[in-house]
Every structure is written in C-alpha cells, then in structure tokens.
User: Fold this.
Amino acid sequence: MDLSDSDSEHAVLERVRDAAAETLVTWASLPDSADARHRFDDHNSDCLVCGVGGRSLRVGQNRARQGELGVTGCCVWDAAVVLARYLEWAEELREAKTKSTDSFALEDAVHGRRCLELGAGCGLAGLAAASLGGLVTLTDREETLSLLERNVREFTGDHCGVRPTRKGKARQAESSCCSEAPEVQYLDWSEPLELEGKTYEVILAADCLYSLDGAESLARVVTSLCCQPGSAAYGARLLLSQELRAPEVLETFLEQVLPHFRAFRLPAPPTLERAAPCVVLYRLIPKTYPMQQR
Assistant:
C-alpha cells in the first residue's frame, strides 16, 4: 500500500518532497550569528543535565576525546536536546488527551512503544524516551558503548547488571524505575544489521549526519530497517534531529530516503527554553506500510 499521497493527517506539517529544495530552504533560514549554535550543549563539562518529563537526566560526556579526528558520540549536541524535548512535548499531549493544532506531535509519543536509537552517542535522546515510558534500545559502535553504558547505569540509579560484551548482543541494565530497563547494543552501520529478536515502532536519530559516507550509511540502514518486510523495524517511523553543518550531507541523506519515506519537517517543541535555529527536526514514515495508529 503506497501512502505517498495520503497527507491529510499531516496537513499542518511541512511536507518535504525534494532534497535540493529542502536543503535550500533550511540553509536560507540559518542565522549568521555565531551564538546560534551551542544553545544547550556544554562541551566544557563532564556531564550535561537535561530536564525531561519532570526528571533531570544526567548524561556523562568524554571531553578528552572531543575534537579527535573521526571520533563522534563523546559529547551531547543541541540536536539531542531538541529531540528529547520534542518527545517530552509529545508525551504531554498524550497525557492531556486534548485535540489541538499541535495534535500531530501526539502521534510521536513513545510511551509503551519500542524505540531504537541509532548512533546514540551519550544516549540523551534514548534515555529521554525511556524516562517517558518508551521501551528503548540504544545502539552505537563498540568504541562508544562504555560511555553509553555508564550513562544507562546513571539513569537506572546505578543498579546495573551487564551481560558479556559480544557484537550484536544486547547488554541490559536492571532498573527499579522503568517498566523495562533500557538496553545497550552494538550496531555498526557498515556491517549487516543484527538486532536481537525485538521489533521496533520508533527509530530515533540525533545528530547522526556528519559526512557524505555517514549520510549514505544512515539512509541505507533506516531504509532497510523501516521499509523491508520482515525487518526488526518494518513500518517504524523515524524521528531525526540534526544540526545543520554541511548542506551536501543533508541533501545526500534526503535524496536517498525520499523515494522510500514520506518526510515532514517538524516545528521546534514549545518546551525549549530558547530557540535552536541551527537544528532541524524531521518525521519520516515508510510509504509502503499502512499508517500507524495510536
């Protein structure tokens, strides 16, 4: 079933139909001021504290590796905070059970849904989803897992049981504060996808687009996960939050996913204390899967 022309439920959102046009629009809106970036992140601290859903999430950072060539995922960036706050907003709408022009965000509420975070890094977005009732698996490459696991231990109140590390095997932290503890799992986009026996309804990605190769890899992974029958996340929606750095990187990603997804640009959540003009937020829904209903 191709839903590419079925936009009635997304009427208040900006549909993204052309990669080049979307890239022009987003870069034309970028402010010249240098202080438009780093609105929420703090790379001079060993941790970042972000309030989500009435809980302060303390996320550790590895400042020593920040700035190393080819190293990512060691610090929190604005895009992760924006995505965390968007999920918080969606949950507030779900709990309020009121219809308004903002009701589109309710469709992205993660409470009770299985969520998979790609390129989790420090894990803020995934932990935010867990704090809001999501059943979350956070994934990244091997070199990032120790920091990610430490942050999961902090999140779960330092009550942690860790299974032996093996590629493709999940490591679960025991928790007394979640209906199901977040899991940490190895996942390298350059390798065949191996996800342990679960299915996912929501894919989260915060600040995962750094290079052309990375954009192509992420596009390939999300298309395989969300659009391939029998995959672990067939039919799942992707919520992507991205800081605008290089136009060709965003354009490359959009060029490769638009044939397979209906894409919408989402507004910034009103729960943000201040604007983050260099961050763009998207919802992508597979064209070949029936529209999900809450």
Observations:
- The two ends are 19 Å apart (CA to CA).
